[in-house]
């Protein structure tokens, strides 16, 4: 079988990756084995200093006077050989799997697979989420001029429904918003100082003040040890926002967050005045505004859109299948039945439970009637009744239906 250059390149890349993965696995197992060999040798009277100077592969050549220890050593040596043999076997199996190619249908010389990446613009109904289980779907996309804006005229990117906070109690999203705003505020101040070409001493003092608010003693930063160039380089890195991390427990305290916000020239409440993008009027209350990491989830409304008229039915219950993949119907559950019962919509309910579901004769007759332009409905006995009979018979109770 002749392979082109690209196929050989892919093969080589896959082989390299397979070998790397297996080698890492072998290293981990070897490390455990050699630590046991080391312990046996040291307890058998070999000096640790001399052992450290000797390459690991030579350890197994050493002989011990203690017979038990020598037997243990020989067993470990056997395990080591087995380990290497297993590695070679696995590698050979991987190599065979990668290089053997695929069986093609008769007359097919080559299969070419093409993957197309399509950019899909976000739209109402698409799902997004933050990092705290705060997921939801987009209800509306506004033009940027209609979005609420702050006193500087900067519009917000996303407006989240506040009802998503108290019910789920995932207040990590609020912590992230506040810290994100503080980080951005500090970054903007540093950027302003760089633009005004202020003295490095002032920059150093401001950045030091920000870092001093950090609570981890081990990570205290002393900017006096930095040269002027290093401080400027640090300021360049921080001008888009200062990286901040806080642990889940014993993390940033409320007072520390307030100090960070004040250092960034922001109100310590974390809330600012916003204006309606359409009317220009100020909102009654101040709004929590900040920076949060949001991502788009692979649950797009385009992939969920689905409709069914007639389609496939389950073999046992004769009811329509469920789900888009099976071209299924929408389940009309117990609670929906109760709603129709409460409303008194008797004919709709009858239709839902018979001809639209598992009344086999009724639904074929209904289909014929619709084609003939006759919208009459004759409900029969649903298949679920037969299933119920079978269930009762399986309990040893015989029930037979009699025709009148």
Automatic annotation (TrEMBL):
Q: Which InterPro entries match?
A: DNA-dir_RNA_pol_su2, DNA-dir_RNAP_su2_dom, DNA-dir_RNAP_su2_hyb_sf, RNA_pol_bsu_CS, RNA_pol_Rpb2_7
Signal peptide span: none
**What's one GO-annotated cellular component?**
DNA-directed RNA polymerase complex
Top-level taxon in the UniProt lineage: Bacteria
Name the residues that span the membrane: none
Q: Which GO terms describe its molecular function?
A: DNA binding; DNA-directed RNA polymerase activity; ribonucleoside binding
Note the Pfam families from the entry: RNA_pol_Rpb2_6 (PF00562), RNA_pol_Rpb2_7 (PF04560)
Keywords (A to Z) from UniProt: Coiled coil, DNA-directed RNA polymerase, Nucleotidyltransferase, Transcription, Transferase
Q: Does the keyword Nucleotidyltransferase apply?
A: yes
First-tier enzyme category under EC: transferase
Q: Which residues form the DNA-directed RNA polymerase subunit 2 hybrid-binding domain?
A: 77-326
Catalytic reaction equation(s): RNA(n) + a ribonucleoside 5'-triphosphate = RNA(n+1) + diphosphate
PANTHER family xrefs? DNA-DIRECTED RNA POLYMERASE I SUBUNIT 2 (PTHR20856)
Query: What protein name does the entry list?
Result: DNA-directed RNA polymerase
Species whose genome carries this gene: Cedecea neteri
């Amino acid at each position: 079988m002749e392979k082109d250059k690209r196929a050989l390149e892919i093969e080589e890349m896959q082989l390299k990756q397979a070998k790397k993965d297996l080698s890492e696995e072998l290293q981990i197992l070897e490390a455990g084995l050699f630590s046991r060999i080391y312990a046996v040798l040291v307890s058998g009277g070999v000096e640790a200093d001399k052992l450290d100077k000797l390459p690991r592969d030579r350890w197994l050549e050493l002989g011990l006077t203690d017979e038990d220890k020598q037997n243990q050593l020989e067993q470990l040596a056997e395990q080591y050989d087995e380990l290497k043999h297993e590695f070679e076997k696995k590698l050979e199996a991987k190599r065979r799997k990668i290089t053997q190619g695929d069986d093609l249908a008769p007359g097919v010389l080559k299969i070419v697979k093409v993957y197309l990446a399509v950019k899909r613009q976000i739209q109402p109904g698409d799902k997004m989420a933050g990092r705290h289980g705060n997921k939801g779907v987009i209800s509306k996309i506004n033009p940027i001029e209609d979005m609420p804006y702050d006193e500087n005229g900067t519009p917000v990117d996303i407006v989240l429904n506040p009802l998503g906070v108290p019910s789920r109690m995932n207040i990590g999203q609020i912590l992230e918003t506040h810290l994100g705003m503080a980080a951005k505020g500090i970054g903007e101040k540093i950027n302003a100082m760089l633009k005004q070409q202020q003295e490095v001493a002032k920059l150093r003092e401001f950045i030091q003040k920000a870092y001093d608010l950090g609570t981890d003693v081990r990570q205290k930063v002393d900017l006096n040890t930095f040269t002027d160039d290093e401080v400027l380089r640090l300021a360049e890195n921080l001008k888009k926002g200062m990286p901040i991390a806080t642990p889940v427990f014993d993390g940033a305290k409320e007072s520390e967050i307030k100090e960070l916000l004040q250092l960034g020239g922001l109100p310590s409440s974390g809330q600012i005045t916003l204006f309606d993008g359409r009317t220009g009027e100020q909102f009654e209350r101040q709004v929590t505004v900040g920076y949060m990491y949001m991502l788009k989830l692979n649950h797009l409304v385009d992939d969920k859109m689905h409709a069914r008229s007639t389609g496939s039915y389950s073999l046992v219950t004769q009811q329509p299948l469920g789900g888009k993949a099976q071209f299924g119907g929408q389940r009309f559950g117990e609670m929906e039945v109760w709603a129709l019962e409460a409303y008194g919509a008797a004919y709709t309910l009858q239709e839902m439970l018979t001809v639209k579901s598992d009344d086999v004769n009724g639904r074929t007759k209904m289909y014929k009637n619709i084609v003939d332009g006759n919208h009459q409905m004759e409900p029969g006995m649903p298949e679920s009744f037969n299933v119920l009979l079978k269930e009762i018979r399986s309990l040893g109770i015989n029930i037979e239906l009699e025709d009148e």
